[in-house]
Amino acid sequence: MDLATIIGFIASFGIVAAGILMGGPMGMFVNGASIFIVVAGSLAVVLMRSSLGDFIGAGALAGKAFANKVDKPEDLIEKVVELATIARKDGMIALEAQEVSNEFLTKGMGMLVDGQDGAAIKAALSTEAAMSIRRAKAGGSIFESWGDFAPAMGMIGTLVGLVQMLANMGDPKSIGPAMAVALLTTLYGAVIANMIAFPIMQKLEQRSEADAVNNELIIKAMIFISEGGNPRVMEGMLLSYLSPKVRAKLEAAA
Asked: Which is nearest to 75 in space by CA: 54, 101, 111?
């Protein structure tokens, strides 16, 4: 699990909840009509601008924001160098017995075992990488739209509450509930946008960028292995994918 995401998510809501409790009971900030207008309304608008498949898939994709499943480039480099050494010594078929957790690397290894050349490997894996980026962008756009529409629905709810309040000025008992709808819808919209939707969108973008770098690294490694290149030469070439700090550390340990 990604501790930064989990801690930040819990802490942000905890801070807001603590601030609420300092000023009064939590119950005064719960309003069914406001929740319905903002949550259901904003999700309905997001569904309208999306395809059904992208909308349903966004929920599962959001899990990536809380999961720490992106491989470190240095670990991938170590693994592909190991694979290149095995392939050069024992042949491509020996890679079939190797187990790796990275699905993209597994697919590349399968193509090497099948005897496909570098051009075919590059074409197939590049297409796979491009589609992965497309899926990530589609999911990110869902949360971006939710972050845009939730405050807008909050404003609509505010206007609904004000109309209800003004229409019932003669009944003091109705003014309070109408004002609650007017104010809480704005609050809910801001919370959804700034504490849920936009942070998840930005985390998914970071995950997508990291995956793209790893996939590019793997493609180059698979092509190099298919051509029978020297594993150490490949390692030196792939070190450029590392940050200067990590690269210096690895070079010093070599």
From this structure: 101
Q: Give dist(CA 103, CA 87) in Å, integer.
A: 19
Domains in the chain: boundaries:
1-30, 31-73+117-253
Structure tokens at 101: 């957790």
Interatomic CA distance for residues 238 and 126, integer angstroms? 17
Q: Which two tokens stand for residue 23?
A: 């000023």
pLDDT tens-digit series, residues 63-105: 777 776 788 899 999 999 999 999 999 899 999 888 888 999 9
Which SS3 state, helix, strand or coil, does residue 70 take?
coil
The answer to whether 175 and 165 have CB atoms below 8 angstroms apart is: yes
pLDDT at 173: 76
Cβ atoms 61, 135 nearer than 8 A: yes
Q: Up-side HSE of residue 238: CA atoms within 13 Å toward CB?
A: 32
Say what the pTM is.
0.82
Angle between helices 73-90 and 244-253 (to 10 degrees): 50
CB within 8 Å of 179: residues ≥ 6 apart: 161, 165
Q: Does pLDDT of 48 surpass 90?
A: yes
- Confidence grade of residue 252 (pLDDT, cut at 50, 70, 90): confident
